[in-house]
Design brief:
Elements lengths: L6 H14 L6 H11 L4 E4 L7 H5 L4 E5 L2 H8 L7 E5 L11 E6 L3 H4 L3 H14 E12 L5 E2 L8 E2 L3 E9 L2 E10 L4 E10 L5 E8 L3 H10 L2 E7 L14 E8 L4
Helix pairs in contact: 1-4
Keywords: Methyltransferase, Transferase
Pfam family, one: Methyltransf_25
Protein name: Class I SAM-dependent methyltransferase
Amino acid sequence: MTYESDTYGERAADQYDHLYGDFTPPPEQIVLLAALAGDTPAVEIGSGTGRVTLPLAERVPVVAVDASSEMTDQLTKKTGHLPITPVTADAAHYRHATSVDLVFACFNTFFLLASEATQRAFLTRAAEMLTAQGVVLIETFVPRPGERLPDGPHPGVFPHQQTVSLKRLAPGTTVLFAAENHQEAGEFHYNEVVLEDGALPRVLPGQMRYWQPDEIDTLATGAGLTLRERWADWNRTPYEPGTSTKHISLYQRTSHP
């Protein structure tokens, strides 16, 4: 099969909340995102079924962008009265009609764009959407082979080369994480193998193009962005290059017309 930006979502959407519904964002994440959004809608890239979208929309309007129409459909069923605009679009091409204070891609979404060309295009489009004081926020893990990913309650392992690990174990349900790291190419390929009592096995494929934080800074520079702040978590703990397992990085435009 050929992996596309919507592949995981199209395969996983109908089961995603069942498998990972207990992975909820910390309150401090929602408070911080709402503050950064200011008086404009927040543009979320990789909204999925609404893990972050729904609680954030209790505070500010959200434009929820996802490449998977199946994920967007799942989110649309939940929006109710909330000020959410679900959009099915590729992050490399999407641009909001008006300028905004916040464009954000949480939980490794930037890596899941899966190719350098798509990541560069996303950063360029995101920069074009910003107000003079606006920021692009990116949250990703720090690639360290052999370590568990900072992946909520069900982390996989980022391998040196190949690994199979237990991602989730519940009555009647087992999720295995089979992963392969291509370090020279900076690519991380994985399958989540879902085994449930009375059902056929399901394979949910994922692919990432990963970078070290300073390499993301270089990509951002090419899109007309510069690093403003970097934290290790949503409490704004200072990022430590040698020990932090993930980073939350804010970029602002180098210049504004």
